[in-house]
Amino acid sequence: MRIWMTGGTGFVGSNIVHQAVAAGHEILTTFNSYRPAGSEPYRLERIDMTDPGAVSGSVRAFAPNLVIHCAILNDLGGLYRDRAAAWRAYVEATRSTSQAAHDMGAAYVLVSTDWVFDGTQAGADESTPPNPVNLYGVLKLASEMVALDRGGAVARVSGVNGLHRARPASPRAQDPGYGYFVASIVDSLSRDRPFTVWESDRINMVATPSLASESADLILDIGARGLEGVFHCCGADAIGRMDLAHLTCEVFGLDPDLLRSGPPDLTGIPRIPIPYDTTITCPRTSDLLDRTPTPVRALLARFLREYSSWS
Fold first, then answer.
1. CA-CA-CA-CA torsion for 33, 37, 38, 43, nearest 10 degrees?
2. Which of 75, 94, 211, 185 is nearest to 143 (CA)?
3. Which pTM was predicted?
4. Residue 21 three-state SS
5. What is the pLDDT of residue 179?
């Protein structure tokens, strides 16, 4: 396949690129602020995602079979400081990319999030009506509606952990969600440094973790099949932060006595609602992709193999 995508130098996007290249696909990814140094086995192009003409011109020139829109404005505070810019970066960029795919007859996948749910809808499946509680969730939901209206697919990822394939040595830190949670634990405990697991009603305390590389495989499968509608690219198990931390120690062979519990350090993070329980299920995804969700222990074991190969 020829795959035109956005955000291929980001966390989830870099895993999509990595898995796609390994499968023999030809990739062009846009980038914004970060471009990997050296020669890469895929094409990079800097494009203003809020410029429909630039987007359509690039897609038309590459002539892809599949368009994957993964790029986000990854600045929670910035979304609130300039809501008009945030709308352009999320919703209008989705409109431009989905329209360009439609015009070329290419399949389309928008990568979305479990944060379209409000934190009280535990076990939400693909048909559960979303109810976002913060601007990020609202922007993602609005983008989903645009993608679906154009006949595309929405691939929601949840509690994503794994390696950043474009920046494997970049600093990883705990945040109010689940992203980088496992990697940040492993980075600290493997150096015999204590790690404080954040616990608070103000943050995302329960989720259904996924592994970035596995989510990437699912997203590529959705696109290759030209499927439409909503998909949940997640693991099998709901788990809390502390339980996930202890399971990480068990799988990675780390010392659980180095784990601590404490309040989150939300310095620089706006005081906004954050969904408490974002656990999701994936019956439609499992049925259409003919797959069984992966248990969290197996996801961690796969992550251990990936982490060891990059260390």
1. -20
2. 94
3. 0.96
4. helix
5. 86
Distance in angstroms (rounded) separating the CA atoms of residues 51 and 271: 32
Which segments of the chain are extended strands (E)? Answer: 2-6, 26-31, 43-46, 66-69, 107-113, 153-157, 160-161, 195-198, 206-207, 210-211, 229-233, 239-240, 259-262
Distance CA 264, CA 148 (A): 36
Which parts of the chain have pLDDT scores under 70?
Answer: 38, 168-172, 311
Distances (CA, A) of 78 to 61, 159, 270: 33, 22, 9
Interatomic CA distance for residues 74 and 89, integer angstroms: 10
Q: What stretches of 202-258 show up as alpha helix (H) in DSSP?
A: 212-225, 241-252
Residue 67 near residue 108 (C-beta atoms within 8 A):
yes
Cα gap 305→209, rounded to integer Å: 17
Closest CA to 222 of 154, 140, 157: 154
Instruction: Spell 169-197 as b/e; 16+ CB within 10 A means b.
Output: eeebebbbbbbbbbbbbbbbbeeeeebbb
CB 79 within 8 A of CB 136: yes
Tokens of 136: 């990020």
* Helix (H) / strand (E) containing 7: none
Look at residue 199 in the predicted model and tell me its pLDDT: 97
